Amino acid sequence: CAGAVSVIERMDEEFLSQVRQRSEYVFSTLRGAKGINGVSGMGLMVGIETVAPAADIVKECINRGVLCLTAKTKIRLLPALNISMEELEFAMETIKTVAAELA
What we know:
Largest sheet: 4 strands, antiparallel
Number of helices: 3
Order of helices and strands: HEEHEEH
Structural class: alpha+beta
Distance between the termini: 57 Å
C-alpha cells in the first residue's frame, strides 16, 4: 500500500510540473507582445490586458479556433490543466497575432 501512495504522489508531482511549465510558457509568450499591456493570474488561470477591446480580440480568436472569454476588460484563459503543448502553442500564437493585428 505504501508503494501505491508513492506512485500516486510521483504522478501528481509530474502532472503539476507539466502545469507549471505550461503556465511559464503562457506568461513568457504573452508578456511584452505587441497589443498586450499585461498578463496576470496563477497557473493556467490567466488574465490578459490588451490595447484593443478584449471582446473584439476574443471574437476573432474564436473565429480562428481558439476559445477564450472576457472578464470585464481582460481576456480570460482557463484551459484544461492537461492541454497539450501543441494546442497551447496554437492558442498563444493566435492570441498574439490577433492582439497585434487589432492594436
